[in-house]
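Ex. 9. Protein: YceD family protein.
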Amino acid sequence: MTMNRPSSPPESASESATGPVPEASATQRLDISVLCRQGQPLAGELPLAQLRRLCTYRGVWPEQAAQTVTWRLVPSVRQAPGDADQLWVDMTLHTRIALQCQRCLERTDAVLDVSKAFRFVHTEAELDRVEAVFDEIDSDDEALLLEPGWPLLDWLEDELILALPIAPRHDDCQIAGHTPSDDPLAGLKPNPFAVLEKLKKS
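Predicted structure tokens for YceD family protein:
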């Protein structure tokens, strides 16, 4: 299967992707089609504590400092020869989160950075086709089925959960009497959300 490479967004859209963007609310529901056709980036900040699923996820430290999540979406419509207009959203996320070290079981901090591109499609058949193309070219891009009232907050939270390290630990963690043979990291099960991500591409 071959894939036509979509053309880049117009220069004006590229410029807006790097320039200042008015702060937006992460609690809104998005009309992805309108957002992409307008081409106006969205950006904002929200308290990490507002993401309840993330803060109560396995391995996340029960008490979080007053950390902030910064996020940015850059929507665009791209054209490819022989294909209809393609709806794309580039996402970037950044935050710091407290986790439980899987060796000493004490607190360790980690930085979560997400940079990912999403293509939105209208039908299940198109979703299957685009996912097959992404798999063939080993792309990290993700195809999503377009739905009305896209929940932005849930979307941001899902991507941060996927970005959690499988086995967080201190870089210089040492335990008295510890030997490599009894390392609790051995045989750890992978992050189930990461497994789900791989299954979606299989």
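Check your answer against this statement. Residues 24-170+186-200 form one domain.
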